[in-house]
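Quick review question:
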């Protein structure tokens, strides 16, 4: 089973317009979502996440909850940065990101795929979905358009807007 989760609510402040940190409320809600996912689906074997800052922060909040709830001595799941889970940038957004993002931020997010059209984006998402291990539970922290395309791939009807921390469940 593969669970796709949109990142938590960000605060639109210190970093590039398209890569803000989570708000305090976003962190709190991410921990709440993690508790619900664990209760319903169990602990994931791995957490994949987009290289964007807000998705990495969401994954870290999930991991905090998992570590607190694990009592069997099993190691917590690894967080794996997965560039194929990254968002789609328009040409204007790419220019803005490159112009307004400082070098340190770019270095920490160097796996972000910036220069890509819609077809290549869809192919990237499809490759990620098909690469997931069978017979394991994975959490995939990502963005709205990735979730919408993964849903289309599996003929799952979704509203056109994916709210923060909404999920898509894919049984394989």
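Suggested answer, residue by residue:
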């Amino acid at each position: 089973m593969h669970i796709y989760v949109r990142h938590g609510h960000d605060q639109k402040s210190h970093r590039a317009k398209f890569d803000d940190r989570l708000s305090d409320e976003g962190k709190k809600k991410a921990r709440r979502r993690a508790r619900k996912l664990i209760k319903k689906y169990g602990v994931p074997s791995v957490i994949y996440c987009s290289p964007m800052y807000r998705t990495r922060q969401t994954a870290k909040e999930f991991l905090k909850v998992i570590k607190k709830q694990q009592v069997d001595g099993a190691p917590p799941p690894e967080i794996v940065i997965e560039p194929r889970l990254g968002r789609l940038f328009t040409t204007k957004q790419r220019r803005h990101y490159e112009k307004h993002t400082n070098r340190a931020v770019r270095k920490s997010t160097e796996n972000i795929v910036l220069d890509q059209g819609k077809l290549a984006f869809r192919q990237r998402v499809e490759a990620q979905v098909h690469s997931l291990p069978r017979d394991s539970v994975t959490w995939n922290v990502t963005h709205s358009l990735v979730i919408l395309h993964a849903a289309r791939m599996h003929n799952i009807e979704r509203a056109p807007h994916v709210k923060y921390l909404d999920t898509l469940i894919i049984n394989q």
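Why it works: Helices lie at 24-41, 53-69, 91-100, 103-108, 118-131, 144-153. The chain has six helices and five strands.
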